[in-house]
């Protein structure tokens, strides 16, 4: 009886240790996701600073686009990891991934003139972002306050909706839906 | 006979081909690893190519489907090609190496490989002097970020070393090509800041910490002007070399770097600073007398100082007070030195011509004083000496008004710089100031005597006597002491 009791204790202790360990890993991943989102916002701010200062729009614009792509890919990888671990994701994680996708979509739009296929990429990111943040019970993601300041020229933006409106990107994004009424294939 | 030889040659070749063809991909793969280990890079590349040909067959060996094998084949091929490039600097090899490593990365996504081909791409861009090729930096950064994630988001010493390499390449790329900027450098400035942020997340040695601090500053200063800041840093470094070993090479190098720093400077403050440094360097070179072109150097110094002063006049509010004072000093100094240079020619060449040239140069600093004379545009450390020299020129060419005006200003300026008043000069004067005042008083007397300024001589003679006595007692004290 004593032996069974001690085996049960060991199993329970082991289980709680593993759970604590898993929680630490998840917390660390979430921390990285937040840090990566901060970097995405920084890259977008820097891109706007570049566009404000330079009208050559050459290789640097492409480099900024590639850089934001790398970061957003990392964020999405982390998001997928969470999904694989838990089979679901938290609202905060969905919002981070969605905001990053919108920043990438906006970045793609900056280079549509040079690369027309960027429009499709922007549409894909935008649709996926809206899909991720879709929840009728809460305030729309575009209207919520951004965790980081976004500067375009001398203007400060604190909501994605304002950024989209003021950069006249909203109409372009709405056109994405007119172009195709295909249902989104991405899982949440 | 010939036929027999040909037959044996063909059969030999056939034997060799069949030997190679007879080997399995597995055997060849082991051969690659051994060849790379033995540093036989040509052989490594050859055998890799054999594997790739074998794998392109309609029915390839089973190993061709193993990602682990194929990514290693491409990896070793890429590294071997890079080594071959290092040996003979043939650019074909580095292009091949980049392609091979990219294929390896496509197969497995090893961030280490991404860093390596990114590094090679930037290296190639630097060699081609094409600063607009930024894809290498992006790829290398992808590798660094991947390695950071792979190491559970910790910064190891290995990663720090890679970040250092990355920053060095970013800087080299920014200043490529040196003379005409193909990019505005904002992207590289941002990458350097990003890299410093990442490195500073880990525990750094003192040396690393200094490195990242320095480069962060270079990426931020002068409106995130990494390019200008780097040329400035290089300019100061070569200026130090010039001071230690003053020769023509160091001089050319310093001037080039500082001129590029000036060209790429964004703020007025930075432009004025670089012009001031260029003036200083040219004045130093003239003083050292190495390249034996004093007039050219002095004229160059004057031109740069003039530009810096124009910036002060046009956009003075953007320039700090300390820099303003320095700019005035170098401008005044460059004019004074050029005046002296032409003045010194009076002994050996056409006297009047030399004096006229000296006067013309000196007049660049003069403006109407609101009465009947002229004064210097600004006060600088040593402005009384320029007045004195100009008064001597006036004396020599017989221009009474100019000489008297200048010597009067020189005398007053020398009193002001020594904090003295003419009324009770003898009681106030210290020993050292006496020797400083003496040349001014003597030139004043000379001019007064030549142009018959009796009232001046009336007050000047007792002052000269007093100053001379003081100066004599100073020289006596010095002689005793020594």
Please tell me about this protein's structure.
- The complex is a heterodimer of chains A (188) and B (482).
- Chain A is mainly alpha-helical.
- Helices cover 71% and strands 7% of the residues of chain A.
- Chain A has one domain (26-179).
- Chain A has helices at 2-53, 59-86, 91-110, 118-132, 160-166, 169-179, and strands spanning 145-152, 155-159.
- Chain A starts with a helix and ends in a 9-residue tail after the last helix.
- The model of chain A is unreliable at 183-188 (pLDDT under 50).
- Chain B has 482 residues and is an all-alpha fold.
- Chain B contains 21 helices and 2 strands.
- In chain B, a hairpin with a 5-residue loop joins strand 1 (366-368) and strand 2 (374-376).
- The longest helix of chain B has 28 residues, at 454-481.
- The model of chain B is unreliable at 6-20 (pLDDT under 50).
- Chains A and B meet through helix 1 and helix 2 of A and helix 7 and helix 9 of B.
Task: Set down the secondary structure blueprint.
The complex is a heterodimer of chains A (188) and B (482).
Chain A: H1 2-53, H2 59-86, H3 91-110, H4 118-132, E1 145-152, E2 155-159, H5 160-166, H6 169-179
Antiparallel strand pairs in A: 1-2
Helix pairs in contact in A: 1-2, 1-3, 2-3, 3-4
Chain B: H1 2-22, H2 25-37, H3 41-55, H4 67-88, H5 91-108, H6 111-127, H7 135-150, H8 157-174, H9 186-199, H10 206-224, H11 226-244, H12 248-263, H13 268-288, H14 294-315, H15 321-344, H16 351-363, E1 366-368, E2 374-376, H17 383-397, H18 400-417, H19 425-428, H20 431-450, H21 454-481
Antiparallel strand pairs in B: 1-2
User: Kindly state the mean pLDDT of chain B as a whole number?
Assistant: 89
Q: Give the end-to-end Cα distance of chain B, rounded to a whole number of Å.
A: 104 Å
Overall mean pLDDT of chain A: 84
Estimated share of beta-strand residues of chain B:
under 5%
Q: What portion of residues of chain A is helical?
A: over 70%
Q: Indicate the radius of gyration of chain A in whole angstroms.
A: 21 Å
Count structural domains of chain A: 1
Structural class category of chain B:
mainly alpha
Ends distance of chain A: 48 Å
């Amino acid at each position: 009886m004593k032996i069974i009791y001690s085996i049960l204790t060991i199993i329970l202790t082991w289980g709680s240790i593993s759970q604590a360990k898993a929680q630490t890993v998840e917390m660390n991943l979430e921390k990285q996701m937040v840090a990566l989102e901060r970097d995405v916002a920084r890259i977008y701010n820097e891109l706007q600073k570049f566009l404000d200062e330079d009208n050559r729009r050459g290789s640097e614009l492409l480099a900024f686009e590639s850089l934001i792509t790398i970061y957003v890919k990392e964020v999405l990888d982390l998001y997928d990891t969470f999904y694989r671990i838990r089979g679901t994701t938290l609202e905060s994680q969905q919002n981070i991934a969605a905001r990053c996708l919108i920043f990438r979509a906006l970045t793609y739009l900056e280079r549509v003139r040079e690369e027309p296929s960027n429009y499709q990429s922007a549409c894909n990111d935008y649709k996926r972002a809206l899909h991720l943040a879709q929840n009728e019970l809460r305030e729309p993601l575009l209207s919520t306050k951004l965790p980081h300041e976004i500067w375009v020229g001398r203007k400060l933006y604190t909501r994605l909706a304002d950024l989209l409106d003021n950069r006249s990107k909203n109409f372009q994004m709405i056109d994405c839906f007119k172009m195709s009424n295909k249902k989104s294939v991405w899982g949440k | 006979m010939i036929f027999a030889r040909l037959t044996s040659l063909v059969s030999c070749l056939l034997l060799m081909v069949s030997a190679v063809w007879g080997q399995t991909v597995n055997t060849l793969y082991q051969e690659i690893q051994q060849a790379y280990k033995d540093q036989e890079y040509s052989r490594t590349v050859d055998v890799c190519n054999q594997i790739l040909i074998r794998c392109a067959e309609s029915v390839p060996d089973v190993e061709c489907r193993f990602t682990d094998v194929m990514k290693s084949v491409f990896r070793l091929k890429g590294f071997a090609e890079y080594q071959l490039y290092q040996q003979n600097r043939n650019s074909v090899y580095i292009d091949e190496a980049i392609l091979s490593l990219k294929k390896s990365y496509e197969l497995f996504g090893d961030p280490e490989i991404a860093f390596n081909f990114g590094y090679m791409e930037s290296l190639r861009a630097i060699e081609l002097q094409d600063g607009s090729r930024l894809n290498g930096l992006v790829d290398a950064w992808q590798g660094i970020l991947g390695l950071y994630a792979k190491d559970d988001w910790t910064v190891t010493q290995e990663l720090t070393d890679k970040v250092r390499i990355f920053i060095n390449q970013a800087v080299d790329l920014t200043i490529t090509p040196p003379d005409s900027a193909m990019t505005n450098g904002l992207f590289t400035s941002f990458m350097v800041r990003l890299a410093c942020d990442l490195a500073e997340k880990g525990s750094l040695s003192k040396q690393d910490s200094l490195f990242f601090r320095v480069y962060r500053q270079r990426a931020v200063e002068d409106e995130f002007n990494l390019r200008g800041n780097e040329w400035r840093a290089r300019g100061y470094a070569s200026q130090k070399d010039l001071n230690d070993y003053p020769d023509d090479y160091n001089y050319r190098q310093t001037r080039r770097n500082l001129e590029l720093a000036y060209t790429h400077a964004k703020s007025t403050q930075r432009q004025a600073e670089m012009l001031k440094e260029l003036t200083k360097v040219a004045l130093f070179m003239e003083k050292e007398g190495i390249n034996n072109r004093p007039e050219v150097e002095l004229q160059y110094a004057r031109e740069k100082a003039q530009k810096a002063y124009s910036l002060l006049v046009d956009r003075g509010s953007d320039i700090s007070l300390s820099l303003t004072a320095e700019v005035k000093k170098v401008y005044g100094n460059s004019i004074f030195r050029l005046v002296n240079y032409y003045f010194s020619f009076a002994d050996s060449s056409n006297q009047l011509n030399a004096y006229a040239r000296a006067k013309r140069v000196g007049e660049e600093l003069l403006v109407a004083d609101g009465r009947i004379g002229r004064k210097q545009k600004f006060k600088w450390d040593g402005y009384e000496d320029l007045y004195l020299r100009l008064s001597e020129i006036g004396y020599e060419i017989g221009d009474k008004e100019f000489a008297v005006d200048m010597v009067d200003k020189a005398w007053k300026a020398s009193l002001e710089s020594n904090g003295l008043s003419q009324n009770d000069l003898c009681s106030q004067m210290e020993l050292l100031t006496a020797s400083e005042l003496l040349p001014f008083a003597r030139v004043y007397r000379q001019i007064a005597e030549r142009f018959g300024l009796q009232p001046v001589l009336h007050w000047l003679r007792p002052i000269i006597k007093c100053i001379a006595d003081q100066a004599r007692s100073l020289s006596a004290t010095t002689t005793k002491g020594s």
